[in-house]
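Quick log. Single chain, no ligands specified.
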Amino acid sequence: MAFAERLVERLRAIPGVVSAAYARQLPMVSLQDSIRLTILRHGVEETLDDTPDIRFVSHDYLRTIDVPTLSGRSLTAEDGAAQFPVVVINDAMARRDFRGVSPIGETILLGPTDHRIAMQIVGVVGDIRQFGLDRPPGSQYFVDMRQVPADPAFHMPPLFPVGAYYTVRVAGKPGALLNNIRGVVRQLDPDAPVDRIATMEQIVANSITRPRMYAVLVSIFSGLAVTLAAIGLYGVMAFSVTQRTREIGIRMALGAQRREVLELVLRQCGALIVIGLGAGLAAAVFATRYLEGLLFGLTPLDPKTFASVAFIFATVALIASYLPARRAMVVDPALTLRSE
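-> predicted structure:
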């Protein structure tokens, strides 16, 4: 941890670096820690059966990865080993375990019964999708590594089993500072390996590689299905209107105006379009629940998608109805009746 503190201090001195921090885990890293947690409410202890996920971080970690502080304060540089231990919880934990009561100032007891430490809640921060975009944020709380007791009886998991994760927020493009970052590490320890450097966008993108592949395949087949459906819809509607050529000729021979005949055809076709779209949208609403696992940041009932697809089919059906009717009306009614 002493090396980590020196490293982030040197990283902050690099021109273009806004902040730097370290942590035992990063978002999208499938590593979870849990320690027995007891909430002290008005002198009464309440041990949580469903233990929240504990995150061991440096004091500037939440600010570096841009997690907003919703109430109270975040961890600060003043929260050192000599200060009273503090903890920051996320919004999901505040809603679940404090049920509408402000958790600021409440005390939690961390660790086994015979070796517990009291920590005061000083802030509530936003939720993080720690284990993937497809999983809702769970209860979490954040502890400054400097305040973690060194007592082996505390049963603390190893803080750096394979090295720390470092986060660096920069003002410009991250790639421009990679050589500087590697140089700082080599200066502190020439034998320290630097592995898996990536932007947070790349980490998130890698976490959804398989769902993205499924989504692309579903999109391709869906687009093909829409195209085939549009072609089939056009053919059926055009054939249906073409079969009415004799009827159109008779109506025009009896004095019907072309505009009136066109309105009649479009009105009748429009009724079929409305019925078909209504049935199709109802079926789509029922079927989209099975695609929810492929959606991130969207709901299965996305109104824009439903509206755009319905508009495409309605437009195709109207064109398929209009063009044959238009062609039939420009033909001399006598010729149409004679050919029939």
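DSSP finds ten helices and ten strands in the chain.
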